[in-house]
Design a protein that fits this description.
globular; alpha+beta; 7-stranded mixed beta sheet; 3-stranded antiparallel beta sheet; 24 strands
């Protein structure tokens, strides 16, 4: 009898287990295949704006995001917005900055600082513009909250921490993407796809042409592309003669860390190197909200010997890019000949596998945390500067699930599509009329340094930094965000668009990505309605809709 009961219990438990497994399998099967009119890959500000606009156009949309946090750099430390001329920022991008204004118009938003004590300093414009009710400077968590509010209001489906299978995850038929599959085996089917990543992973996996690195000046008849030795347009080069060797004056002792032994290349020649990445740090000098700079997981003091030599030459500009954001915080960026940019350590990032990218990301984190720790602790740092830097720390109320460190590495440039129209410095500098505008940019041609080398005279120098002012706002061509028709008929690429290295230095600003994300979704919707490839969308109708959305397309709009 007892044996029968025992066997019955075993049989019952087996049935329950099989039932649970079948439910789980069915649930997984339901999750694996999802379908929407527009599938957006990425979690950047462009991705969010594209998703919002798709829903406003009456389309079903799904966002497949490798990121857990939405908003890209806008919500990961870049709060001192690179506005350029704010008058050409319209549509949903302006709505974002309007919502920033509404947030800080509340007394409750000013927890660590009185609004009256805030300096109202922006980049080329006041931080707060009461006349048009916009605000251009903000804390990271505020930007993220606004992005999440957009998603909630428009009931946008977002699948987070979902990474495209870059090897076999893009299914194409007859020149169109049919579906994308992530590493977790979720499949997303759509009519039109938008790659809104900083890396252009979907674009590349779809076998669309692209370029990595600098083109030669000869490629597009440019002046500011390619290698730019002895060109100094920002304060980020060595103004004093600094010895590059471990033992000063002794070549046989080897080079200090961070200096390349390779010749920088012929001026104007192309290469496959990239402008440096960094994290845009949110720091504070408020003791109540300050976390002491932590020692990184891997700390290498030798990596900062060159900085000591910079200080020995009397350099005092350490705090020049502690740009203020509300509540006694900063958006701290690279500044000077040796700073937060990890020059030369990102060249393989665009094409790297996910594991290698994770290593590069961690190396940048260790370098930048180590830099802060070194300046705070090492006795060779000038005492006045060390005393001041120890009044700063990470903001305790930012990035709380990541040790107060930004979630997103600043991928200033990775892949760039090569399509039928390539934006170049001629477009940005107003030397030609840009056809079929879908938005405008206005920032300078801006590239950070790309390499650190030894000059023929035997001293260390940086190369690659460019800052050439655009004389006026310029249009961005529709054909720069769509691939060649022979390569893919239903993909739009508003972030890694078709543009030369140096022109991308102007276009790569967060407000512009938001503008292009919105425009891409509008074009995608038209392509669906007309049952046409994105290359054949009626531009007159697209222009009409973009103007209705209060986008700015030309200086006369």
């Amino acid at each position: 009898m007892n044996k029968d009961i025992y066997n019955f219990k075993r049989f019952y438990l087996l049935i329950v287990l099989l039932f649970c497994l079948s439910v789980k399998v069915k649930a997984q099967q339901k999750v694996k295949d999802m379908e929407a009119d527009i599938v957006i890959y990425g979690g950047t500000s462009a991705a969010v704006m594209a998703a919002v606009q798709a829903t406003k156009m009456g389309k079903s949309v799904v966002v497949v995001s490798p990121d857990k946090h939405l908003g890209g750099l806008s919500s990961s430390g870049l709060g001192f917005t690179d506005t350029g001329n704010k008058q050409v920022i319209g549509g949903l991008a302006r709505e974002f900055y309007h919502r920033v204004y509404l947030h800080y118009d509340q007394d409750t938003a000013w927890k660590w600082q009185q609004k009256s004590d805030y300096g109202n300093v922006g980049q080329g414009t006041p931080a707060i513009d009461g006349k048009d009710r916009t605000m251009w400077i903000f804390e990271p968590h505020v930007a993220e909250a606004i992005m999440e509010a957009f998603v909630k209001e428009h009931q946008i489906k977002v699948y987070r921490d979902e990474w495209l299978n870059r090897e076999t995850g893009v299914e194409k038929k007859a020149g169109k993407i049919v579906s994308i599959t992530t590493l977790s085996r979720k499949k997303f089917k759509g009519k039109v796809f938008i790659d809104a990543t900083y890396e252009g992973d979907l674009m590349a996996a779809a076998k669309v042409s692209y370029h990595v690195g600098r083109e030669s000046n000869a490629t597009y008849n440019e002046q500011w592309n390619g290698v730019q030795t002895e060109v100094f347009q920002h304060a980020h080069h060595f103004t004093e003669l600094v010895d590059p060797y471990v033992i000063k004056g002794d070549k046989s002792s080897g080079l200090l860390e961070g200096i390349s032994a390779t010749h920088p290349g012929v001026k104007g020649a192309g290469d496959h190197k990239l402008q440096a990445y960094c994290f845009r740090m949110c720091l504070t000098d408020n003791p109540e909200n300050r976390v002491e700079f932590p020692k990184p997981d891997f700390y290498n003091p030798k990596a900062y010997e060159l900085l000591v030599r910079v200080f020995e030459k009397g350099w005092k500009e350490l705090f020049n890019k502690y740009d203020p954001v509300p509540n006694r915080k900063t958006d701290t960026n690279n500044h000077g000949p040796f700073s937060t940019d990890y020059i030369g350590e990102n060249y393989d990032y665009p094409e790297a596998c996910y594991a290698r990218r994770k290593e590069i990301n961690k190396a940048h984190e260790n370098y930048q945390k180590g830099l802060l720790y070194f300046m705070a602790k090492d006795p060779r740092i000038p005492s006045d500067l060390q005393k001041k830097i120890n009044t700063w720390g990470l903001a305790k109320d930012e990035f709380k699930d990541n040790g107060n460190w930004p979630h997103q590495l600043y991928i200033r440039e990775a892949r760039r599509m090569v399509s039928d129209y390539v934006m170049t410095e001629h477009d940005v500098l107003g030397k030609k009329v840009v056809p079929h505008s879908i938005g405008m940019g206005s920032y300078s041609l801006d590239s950070h340094h790309i390499q650190r080398y030894v000059t023929e005279a035997g001293f260390v120098q940086n190369e690659g930094d460019i800052g050439v002012k655009a004389p006026q706002p310029y249009s961005i061509a529709y054909y720069a965000i769509i691939p060649k028709k022979t390569e893919c008929e239903n993909l739009l690429v508003p972030v890694c668009l078709s543009v030369s290295h140096i022109a991308y230095g102007s276009i790569r600003m967060e407000p512009v990505f938001m503008i292009l994300g919105e425009s891409a979704a509008t074009a995608a919707s038209l392509a669906i309605d007309s049952k046409l490839p994105v290359q054949d969308v009626d531009y007159k109708l697209l222009k009409h809709l973009l103007l209705q959305q209060k986008q700015h397309l030309t200086l006369t709009d």
